DUF779 domain-containing protein
Amino acid sequence: MTTERNAVDRVVATDAAVQLLTKLSELHGGLMIHQSGGCCDGSAPMCYPVGDYRVGQRDVLVGEIELPEPLPAVRVWINGDQFELWKHTQLILDVVKGRGAGFSLEAPEGVRFLSRSRVFDEQENAWLDACPPRRGADIE
């Protein structure tokens, strides 16, 4: 959801993703997503309870996914180097059937989070260039 005229969100979620995040938040409390850059589980959005994953100083806060009240929003993070490669695309958090990553909270649900993307247009890129995202070092 955008907050200013001509603003654009770096991350959005499908209805299915919001529903799953809502269910997981009700079960586990506040959540966060970290867009994994590879290693064991490939490049996948990983869902953790807040505090179970340590955000690095160079990690970039891509945005927040709002959940129904009174649940807190879900912050979405990405590695700083990976962000540089993806900064011209909107991350679209979705859900598909299949086995989730072993460390991600949705694994037992028979579904997994999936990142889709959309390339920002020229106007969106100009707006985003004027509004640099915050990094892990900037946030407590």
About this structure: The chain has a mean pLDDT of 89.
